[in-house]
User: Fold this.
Amino acid sequence: MIDHFGLLAPLYDRLIKPPDTARLQELLGLPAPGALLDVGGGTGRVAQQLQHLVDFLVVSDESPAMLQQAREKGLFHTVSSGAERLPYPDEAFDRVLVVDALHHFADQQQAIAELVRVLASGGRLVIEEPDLKRLTVKFVALAEKVALMRSRFYYPQEIQQMVSNAGLQARVEHDGQFAAWIVAGKA
Assistant:
């Protein structure tokens, strides 16, 4: 099996367009006290921009090479973990974030159940994914399939339904270009 992210790690931040961190900050309700978990956070390109807005930040990813890049940025709380079995207690994080990674998880529904499990009462979950309604995203999905990345893309409303299945009410927001955000709060 090809280790795509191990190969891409040194170049990832230069190859991938950075997300709209101002929008993420707004959707997450930051600044806020407490802890933020960035699942599938890879090189920490998003977490690095948000770390000053929370008390504690953890970047979780399956790729040791990606996490090494995050540590080189000064993100010292990194954990090698799959999203489907997060090594944290229930309700450990006030904010949980997934940016452009859900389609890479082996079992999206199980991963979302884990995201909800580790989210504290009163906390907020934000999932940013490429909007499969867009033709450019369909090409990206095809390219990842050809590259044997085993990605599985979903429409935003399907992800919203998965979050609902895990017990949270969620809404979908679009940027009108490439991304969609699924936002949910835990009562």
Summary: The mean pLDDT is 94. The beta strands are 35-39, 56-61, 78-80, 93-99, 119-130, 170-174, 179-185.
